[in-house]
Amino acid sequence: MKKTIMAISSSLLLGGIATAQKISFEEYDLDNGLHVILHQDNSAPVVITSVMYHVGSKNENPNKTGFAHFFEHLLFEGTQNIKRGEWFNIVTANGGVNNANTSDDRTYYYEVFPSNNLELALWMESERLMHPIINQVGVDTQKEVIKEEKNSRYDNQPYGKIIEAVKKNLFINHPYRWTTIGSTEHLNSAKLEDFKAFNEKFYIPNNAVLVVAGDFQQKQAKEWIQNYFGPIKKGEKIVRENFTEKPITETIKATHIDPNIQIPMLVTAYRTPSMKNREARALDFISSYLSDGKSSKLYKKIVDDKKKALQIGAVGFNQEDYGMYIIYGLPMAGFNNEDLLGEIDEEILKVQTDLISERDYQKTLNQFENQYVNENSNVEGIAENLAKYYLLFGDVNLVNNEIEIYRSITREEIRDAARKYLNPNQRLILDYIPTPQKNEN
């Protein structure tokens, strides 16, 4: 009886999600190529204005890395009509908040304002696009900001270079081989003309999507969008290179020394397909099933039951061209990396050999359902998803129907994805260790 009640409750929940989370939107293009997406929600007096540019660290010159992340900071410096240092003051004085972030694939800027300040937000984002001030003062200032960020978050942070170590071993040809924050040396050696050229090439209307979401009137919003963004000149068409990697056919073994740690860490990583690939979503099931939280298979087995590790975790990087699935663990005293790897391989082999149970399948699917609800529970999340699905997936409708793709993934597909991508000869094994101690005579 209890199982029946739970099944009915689950069914009602899933049906409610599908109805409650239906997101309406309108999309169109300006003459200069800027794609516009409008999502009207008048339930709260808040509006978000965001612009996502199709430029990330993968679009950089190998000898000039870190530019996309640098511009995340630099384009807050000021414009012809916004004095240097005034951007954040204007936002806060008008009751707003703003931020930006960069990935390997894109850069995203946004402002959240009371809805009566939509025109201000549109003007500011159009200023960033049309009239940025890129001068030596701003470049020098942001170089120091980036250096401090790199030192605190990566160079001097325990285990702060795991992703860097993984990427440079998993990717040989693709620009994913370097980190988003890039190289300090590259930024130091770059000339002002290099930054201006990067801006002119990538920060153009035909390489961006503008999203307005929240409490606004569409007719008025369209007028303002045309007034502020319409006059911006269309940029030269960007010719994008396609970088491919040869399949990994032999285990890659590497070592990274981190002077900031005392406990060695096992890191094993697999290269996975583009996030647009159905198999990538099947691999999401595997990642969640094996390593998402303290109730996952790996944590329960290795940390709770066998007490071989202080910590077991995983992170999946779903990206436009390739992804990564990284599993890491800190061995308990008396155990080593080989012990952890053996336990991990045993659980992966089970997924490759047998179908996961219907109960585990449903539990994992419920996690995706919850994630879907959370991501679309506010206008900020909806705005970013609308931009992402247009720019990186080429299908805005995924904001509503991607969850249906996850629901359609079968247990057989999950097993087949594990067999195809998670084999010992297709991975990196990274010994992430402290600085070796010198023997004293």
From TrEMBL:
Entry's transmembrane regions: none
Keywords linked to the UniProt accession: Hydrolase, Metalloprotease, Protease, Signal, Zinc
InterPro entries attached to this UniProt entry: Metalloenz_LuxS/M16, Pept_M16_N, Peptidase_M16, Peptidase_M16_C
Range of residues in the leader sequence: 1-20
UniProt domain Peptidase M16 N-terminal: residue ranges: 36-180
Tagged with keyword Ion transport: no
UniProt KW DNA damage keyword: no
Entries under SUPFAM superfamilies matching the protein: LuxS/MPP-like metallohydrolase
Cross-referenced Gene3D superfamilies: Metalloenzyme, LuxS/M16 peptidase-like (3.30.830.10)
Residues annotated as domain Peptidase M16 C-terminal: 191-367
Alphabetized Pfam families for the sequence: Peptidase_M16 (PF00675), Peptidase_M16_C (PF05193)
Family per similarity comment: Belongs to the peptidase M16 family.
Protein name: Pitrilysin family protein
Source species of the chain: Flavobacterium flavipallidum
Lineage, broadest ranks: Bacteria, Pseudomonadati, Bacteroidota, Flavobacteriia, Flavobacteriales
